Amino acid sequence: MSARLEADHLYKVFGRRQDQAVERLRAGADREELRADGTTAAVIDASFTVDPGQIFVVMGLSGSGKSTLLRMLNGLLEPTAGHVRFDGRDLTALGDRELREVRARKISMVFQHFALFPHRSVLDNAAYGLAVQGVPRAEREKRAARALELCGLAGWETSWPDELSGGMQQRVGLARALATDADLLLMDESFSALDPLIRRDMQDQLLTLQKTLKKTIVFITHDLNEAMRLGDRIAVMRDGRIVQNGTAEDILLRPADDYVASFIQDVDRSRVLTAGAVMDTSVTADAPLCRCETASPTTPFAELCAISARVPHRVSVVDGAGRLVGVVPRQRLLGFLGDETADPVPCDAPDGKVAAHA
Ligand SMILES: Nc1ncnc2c1ncn2[C@@H]1O[C@H](COP(=O)(O)OP(=O)(O)OP(=O)(O)O)[C@@H](O)[C@H]1O
Ligand SMILES: [Mg+2]
């Protein structure tokens, strides 16, 4: 599968002598060294790919370069060095007109504080992107109404924005992005201004929409729980650089450094982990270790705990063909709820049916 979006060694430097700054960064200089000269290295050597239908989350502390990175992905900011490819086309090589065309039709952006037009109806607000594209009124109202319905706002078309709650206004923003049929959605802290319950609701709604619409989404957040709920992959940024790019499980079990580790302290591990991530794979055999209930590698952690409570000793994890791929002793399960990273307690001598120990 070819990538829908590719960032290839992207740099963005603000301030003086930008090309020289990139050379210094390539030679290993960091942000602080450049800052002394009045130059800000906002994004340093960022490379990643996003596959069609994926939600790619970028997270990091304030100032780490997330918004700058996102604005380079749709050409709002020109990279100081590097390339952005969208469906194989180099956005950095497009002229202004072509770029505006791609931005209007293929890429939509949803911001943190979505600015709705106060004197336009909810329907007109949702249809705004289509109006920019020059879609005739009847057609754009039909598509906007459909997008509002998808976002749970059917019946609000003729209301004014100030008659809606903050969460509903945010959903109008999402509807505006969806109405254009853009393949790529760029979402910058889109849910951060919402209170926790509504925020969770919006996350659920996005995941539900994503199941049918299968957009390609780059989602920015500074909240790791949100990142883990939404992200098929998560890139963690620090001081302009991507310090880790992996799945939620990778980040949780194998944090690349202390900075990433400090993020994961407050994460609810039981929501992220699956049997495949916590099992001990050094124990393999042709069949489950006992005839009792088994788990599969995708069994969620909470369900695994329930199975563990029902079976003696350990849970056998079996693949689709019924082969044993790992085991989870109860002790190991508990270890993962604490702050164990990968490979905690090894599995001690199992019963006689075990074929191999790594
Ligand atoms: N137009 C600009 N001119 C100069 N410096 C800028 C500009 N835009 C961003 N920066 C700097 O680049 C760095 C990264 O900013 P950016 O907005 O990308 O961070 P962020 O990760 O999105 O932060 P936040 O979570 O606060 O939104 C910051 O040090 C910022 O001051
Ligand atoms: Mg930002």
TrEMBL record:
Per the record, a Pfam family? ABC_tran
Q: Give the source's domain of life in one word.
A: Bacteria
Q: Name one GO cellular component term.
A: membrane
Which molecular function terms from Gene Ontology are attached?
A: ATP binding; ATP hydrolysis activity
GO biological process terms on file: glycine betaine transport; response to osmotic stress
**Which keywords does this Swiss-Prot/TrEMBL entry list?**
ATP-binding, CBS domain, Nucleotide-binding, Transport
Q: Which InterPro entries match?
A: AAA+_ATPase (IPR003593), ABC_osmolyte_uptake_ATP-bind (IPR051921), ABC_transporter-like_ATP-bd (IPR003439), ABC_transporter-like_CS (IPR017871), Gly-betaine_transp_ATP-bd (IPR005892), P-loop_NTPase (IPR027417)
The residues covered by the ABC transporter domain are: 5-264
Family listed: Belongs to the ABC transporter superfamily.
Q: What protein is this chain from?
A: Glycine/betaine ABC transporter ATP-binding protein
Q: What is the lineage of its organism?
A: Bacteria, Bacillati, Actinomycetota, Actinomycetes, Kitasatosporales
